[in-house]
Amino acid sequence: VDVTNCEICERGDREDRLLLCDSCDLGFHLDCLTPALNRVPRGDWFCPQCVQAVPQEGQAVLNLCVGFYLCCSQGVLVFYRGYRC
């Protein structure tokens, strides 16, 4: 059985609170993220590392996509579909 650990706290517990990035498949506990999430967002979710890897010109295009929202809190970008800031 493969265990996915949280990239922030490095623990593999609380699987019901572990969110997987739809780009890189890395795991993150909802409450380890900054800002913390209360629930698993609907649709695709992308981790902060994958969001920051998007080139600036590509970021403008992503911001225009219907159903995508860019949130900024405490200087950390969290990008996912189906969640309104």
TrEMBL record:
Signal sequence interval, chain numbering: none
Keyword presence, Zinc-finger: yes
Key word Repeat present: no
InterPro entries in the cross-refs: PHRF1/Atg35, Zinc_finger_PHD-type_CS, Znf_FYVE_PHD, Znf_PHD, Znf_PHD-finger, Znf_RING/FYVE/PHD
PHD-type domain residues: 3-53
The entry's keywords: Metal-binding, Zinc, Zinc-finger
Molecular function terms from GO: zinc ion binding
Protein name stated in the entry: PHD-type domain-containing protein
Species of the source: Capitella teleta
